[in-house]
Design goal:
Radius of gyration: 23 Å
Largest sheet: 7 strands, mixed
Distance between the termini: 32 Å
Strand order of the largest sheet: 1-5-6-4-7-3-2
Structural class: alpha+beta
Number of domains: 2
Shape: globular
CATH architecture of the largest domain: 2-Layer Sandwich
Helix content: 40-55%
């Protein structure tokens, strides 16, 4: 998963904006490769996966040393699966799921979760809608019952639809008034043009105003099918109990057809918007990376190597050496059908052209050769991220659901480590070389004219 609405905006494949792991070392070529310790003090969680007759998959990640648990329903549908007419309906539906079911109204839904101290929430991304509860392990079965109710038994009362429509329009205004959110959407359009992946998760005002109850009911019937569902629980949970309850609650859901993802082509170009009231320029640059199905690990390493820490070439040169921006970073956005290196920065108008020229030059330098220390740093940062995911219930089940949707199987901790450690300098260099052949996608928000930004970037990359 990558971008979300009603959640953190950027996805989980980003390199961390922290100093790299390991001690500082003197320069020179004769040094030991430092690797983080990846053997946790507690036994590694062993996920359990079963599949119901209707295609629903159930995954549990028991962590007996914890007392908390995360329970979630993952639905493989998002904004990329919507028609142009119903753009935003996945997100609209996510909101409406909590507004009343056959047995509970919105007040009862909220109170039932909070009476057991649980945090109930949801988010929508380009490819997935997720409903989840975080609470105590002893309440995991009850949390699963609550989620089944809102996901499968929502009634979409007309009065609630109209009230929530107003809430969504207010949420849309928040996004439209946030320069970073605006630039993120502009980058999507610059990267993918009129393809479904470029559509905003929240939709537009026109879409939000015209979605009807009939649209919501029809969308559920088409997409909330067994083939698109993963039921997951992690933490202090009992796999046999969760599996039996999931069969009882979700076993009747029609199998349906799994959501199909269209192939995505990188377009490139510049999309900009003038915004009164801001003094700086918000910039996002995007370049194509391999998708998850194409083998994305070299792309993850490349993104983390380039701008995933204070010592990374991008951050060191742009911020530490040149003072061109306070915030600058790069991350990899990847899914089963797309990959994008995203380079974000906030800079001053008079420094914008120097900034993009610097980015172009740094990209070209990586295509000429990969520094061994930075390759080591990037691998280790990704290894630490992988360990952190394994140790956090929601992160663990989120990763498991994504693996089931994309690969049809789970990728174990040891395999994940091997995939990262197997990435070579030449593979990373080739990723950068391929990016230099593409037209960059650029999204900008600024108070005034931005100049020949795309041309300056391409000239530096040539």
């Amino acid at each position: 998963m990558w971008r979300r609405c009603c959640g953190s905006w950027r996805g989980a494949e980003a390199g961390p904006s922290l100093p790299p792991p390991g001690a500082r070392r003197a320069s020179g070529d004769n040094r030991a490769v430092i690797k983080p310790e990846i053997s946790p003090s507690q036994p590694a969680a062993v996920p359990v996966v079963t599949e119901l007759d209707n295609g629903v998959r159930v995954v549990t990640v028991p962590m007996p040393h914890l007392r908390s648990a995360s329970v979630a329903v993952f639905v493989r549908t998002g904004s990329r699966n919507e028609s142009a007419r119903l753009n935003g309906i996945s997100h609209f539906l996510e909101h409406m799921a909590f507004k009343g079911t056959a047995t509970r109204d919105v007040q009862a839904i909220n109170l039932d979760a909070e009476r057991i101290g649980a945090d109930m929430n949801a988010y929508t991304s380009k490819d997935t809608t997720v409903y989840y509860l975080n609470g105590l392990g002893r309440d995991a079965p009850r949390m699963l019952e609550m989620l089944a109710d809102v996901v499968l038994e929502s009634t979409f009362p007309e009065a609630e639809i109209e009230r929530e429509r107003e809430v969504l329009l207010q949420e849309l205004v928040e996004y439209e008034e946030d320069p970073q959110s605006v630039v993120s959407q502009l980058l999507d359009v610059a990267a993918y043009g009129k393809q479904p992946l470029a559509r905003p998760i929240i939709g537009t005002r026109r879409h939000i105003e015209r979605i009807t109850r009939e649209d919501l009911v029809g969308y559920v019937k088409r997409h909330y099918a067994g083939a698109n569902l993963v039921i997951a629980a992690g933490g202090d949970v009992q796999p046999a109990r969760i599996d039996a309850l999931a069969r009882q609650l979700f076993g009747h859901v029609p199998r349906g057809e799994g959501s199909a993802a269209e192939a995505v082509a990188h377009v490139g170009g510049l999309q900009s918007r003038r915004r009164a009231g801001i003094s700086q320029v918000y910039s996002s640059i995007g370049l194509p990376l391999p998708s998850m199905r194409q083998g994305h690990h070299a792309g993850l390493v490349a993104a983390t190597l380039f701008g995933g820490g204070m010592s990374a070439p991008l951050v060191d040169e742009v911020r530490e050496r040149r003072g061109l921006a306070y915030h600058v970073a790069s991350e990899a956005e990847v899914s089963d059908v797309h990959g994008l290196l995203v380079i974000d920065a906030i800079t001053q108008p008079q420094k914008l052209l120097e900034y993009v020229a610097t980015v172009g030059r740094l990209l070209k330098e990586q295509a000429e050769g990969i520094d061994a220390q930075h390759l080591e740093r990037a691998r280790n940062q990704l290894l630490v991220q992988a360990v952190h995911k394994q140790e956090r219930p929601f992160s663990a089940i989120e990763a498991a659901a994504e693996q089931l949707f994309v690969h049809g199987r789970l990728i174990g901790a040891d395999e994940a480590v091997r995939q990262i450690e197997a990435v070579t300098a030449e593979q990373v260099r080739a990723v950068f070389e391929a990016m230099l052949q593409a037209t960059p996608a650029v999204g900008l928000a600024s108070r005034g004219a931005v100049g020949e930004v795309l041309q300056a970037l391409q000239a530096a990359m040539a």
